[in-house]
Amino acid sequence: MKSYEVNFDGLVGPTHNYGGLSYGNVASQSNSQQSSSPKEAALQGLAKMKALMEMGFQQGVLAPQERPDVAALRRLGFSGTDAQVIERAAKEAMPLLVASCSASSMWVANAATVSPSADTADGRVHFTAANLNCKYHRSIEHPTTSRVLGAMFANQQHFAHHAALPAVAQFGDEGAANHTRFCCEYGEAGVEFFVFGRSAFDNRYPAPQKYPARQTLEASQAVARLHGLREDGVVYAQQNPNVIDQGVFHNDVIAVGNGEVLFYHEDAFLETEQMLAELESKLAKVGGKFQSVCVPRSAVTVDDAVRSYLFNSQLLSRPDGSMLLIVPQECQANERVWAYLQSLTSSGGLIREVKVFDLKQSMQNGGGPACLRLRVALNETELAAVNSGVIMTPPLYGSLTAWVEKHYRDRLSESDLADPQLLLECRTALDELTQILKLGAVYPFQIN
Ligand code: SUG
């Protein structure tokens, strides 16, 4: 049976702004308080989805969330009408209003961890929504994420959904941003590669000194258990704590994998040799030949990687078996990174082509091409069971761009977040969106 990797991209929400909310994420910190363009951000994301669809890849879309999250503000003690809740939060605790307005759900690589049916004990595709417990503004995403994923992958014969792990730092889980899968064909059993930043219960694993390690070993192990993965089908590796301290807040800022290939930076992991050997032997057991492409620090420094987001690229398989790398334009702007990419594609290896995209609005908050997509490997039968409303087509692209043009503001700055009108605009837009994407009622304002 045919199988595919379907990329579901997060649609940028109408409140996209630069809140400076993510300590440890260099771009988020350095662009704090700048004014944003939600409209441009959403159109940039849609342009990437359209381009991939036109290149022949399976492309889907994942809906944004209701923001400001008034219910979250109410849980923090703000009361009155929705407008009063927003006004009071703006007056008394602006950082909490800013957090409740973040459009961070656009980075859907963090929405969930997904295991394809060929890897799981019950033969279904498993999803575990990420608790995103490290940052308050992200920790409020998972209830709606679960409802949206449930509406997209509703068929229980093929899809199994797990609630987010316990909401404590010991089970800090950032979803697919620290998860990669190696395989021969997407529909065949593969090896799932979980990268963690620290252990919550075992102090033999070193932790970073400066910035938080968001993903714990124990969270990754829990996800593997929930999904019913074989021991032989899982490899765990620790991220190098020194690179976390240099701004590599997720593994997908320093490594990306696809098919039988891992593309990574020399400094990305601890115990790299052992890890590569385990990946090679486990992939061999399912008939695969593991290949790794290591980018040496002499060619590209960790700082270059953090600034350019070279590794936050999408590594995609072309029909002839070669691979294509989708990179943000910041890679072209960095001389060393661009020179490296030229040498990589002309070296005769598997990665033959690089395509550049302008995702500046998202990049300024630390979200590159790979952050914006959730990969779901599906066979033909499973793909047919996905809610067809979320699969990208030329007419859907047309409807979504018209919807963005109609509802989104050109500019947004911090003071605009205090305007209760923004909530009404967001709800009006999302109500229409759930009809366009055929999602049914998924948002708090549609349910309560
Ligand atoms: O969690 N930025 C996100 C970026 C997530 C990128 N995802 C992956 N690497 N997979 C984060 O740090 C910034 C929001 C702000 O500051 O307004 C933010 O949440």
TrEMBL record:
It comes from Pseudomonas retamae. InterPro entries: AstB_sf (IPR037031), SuccinylArg_d-Hdrlase_AstB (IPR007079). SUPFAM superfamilies: Pentein (SSF55909). The active site is at E174, H250, C371 (nucleophile). It is an enzyme of class 3 (hydrolase). It catalyses: N(2)-succinyl-L-arginine + 2 H2O + 2 H(+) = N(2)-succinyl-L-ornithine + 2 NH4(+) + CO2. Keywords: Arginine metabolism, Hydrolase. Transmembrane segments: none annotated. Substrate binds at residues 19-28, 110, 137-138, 214, 252, 365. Belongs to the succinylarginine dihydrolase family. Pathway: Amino-acid degradation; L-arginine degradation via AST pathway; L-glutamate and succinate from L-arginine: step 2/5. One of its GO terms (molecular function) is N-succinylarginine dihydrolase activity. Homodimer. Its EC number is 3.5.3.23. Catalyzes the hydrolysis of N(2)-succinylarginine into N(2)-succinylornithine, ammonia and CO(2). Pfam families: AstB. This is N-succinylarginine dihydrolase. The keyword Ligase does not apply. It comes from the Bacteria.
